[in-house]
Each structure stands twice: as C-alpha cells, then as structure tokens.
Amino acid sequence: MTEDKARVRLKIGQLEVEYEGASSFLQADLLNLMEKIVGFYDEHKAAIPADSPPDNGAGTGGGGPLDGFDHSTNTIAAYLNASTGPELIIAAAAHLSMVMKNGTFNRKDISDEMKSATTYYKDSMLGNLTASLNSLVKAKRLNQSAKDTYALSANETKTLEAKLAQSI
Hints:
Blueprint: E1 5-12, E2 15-22, H1 23-44, H2 73-79, H3 85-99, E3 105-106, H4 107-116, H5 123-127, H6 129-138, E4 142-146, E5 149-152, H7 154-165
Antiparallel strand pairs: 1-2, 3-5, 4-5
Helix pairs in contact: 2-3, 3-4
C-alpha cells in the first residue's frame, strides 16, 4: 500500500521551511512543526533579515519580476509540473539562469541540476539528454551558443517568469 504524498512550504519573514513527503507526517505533526517554527522565529528574529519590499521593476534599480527568486530546481519543477525529461531540463535551466544568474550553462550543469531535483529525476532522462536538448533547441526554448553550451531563449524566459512569478 502506498502512502499519500503531501507538500507544504511555511515562510515567516526570510525563514522558510519546505517539506515534501508522507502526508501522515503533516496530519500528525504539522501543528507541532508550526509551533516550533514560530517559537524559533520569535527567539531569533533579530538575527533573521526582514523581508524586503518587492521590486516591481519600475524604479531605477531595473530589477526584474523575479528579483529575490531563490527556488531549487526541485521546487521550480513542481511549479512547472515537470513530468518529462525536456520539462525537467527547462526547470534546471530556469534555476541556472534565474537563480544562479548564469547567462549560459553547459550540459554537465544541466544534468547536475536535473539530478538535484530528486522528486522528478529519473535515470532514463539522462540517457535521453542529447535528444531532449536537441528537441528544445529546435523548439526554440533553448539556444545553443556553442557545443554543449545553452541558454534559455528570450521567449522561454518570459514564459517562465510569468509562470514562476506566481510562486513568489
């Protein structure tokens, strides 16, 4: 018998806890977990930076819609409902581009990020990496700037920003 999975993310100021796993934990221990987090926050809030106001990009700072975006590849894959190799590649590329601020990234960077998304990664995805990368380049979702070097296309970046802006 398989157990239901659940996911929860709690955020108080800059303190954030994310859990994904058996729903029985949440049913039995969520209240206790929240009490401990609130207690920890109250005790240590002087050492935890306060949330900064969101930058809407209209000021002189020139910030984009995802300033302060710091989700893992696993979390990005969750927001994108990544269920295939190409979708996980896009989640990995989004992390490398939008979180790590890498303009370009290589094949190894992509595969390492895919593997870090343990909830979504399957070994078969790495076996199909070449075909998946080629299909994403042909679909103009990724740009290939050199052999085994890629970047998100401008259109894909705009699409991802719109989807992921809802998560922050």
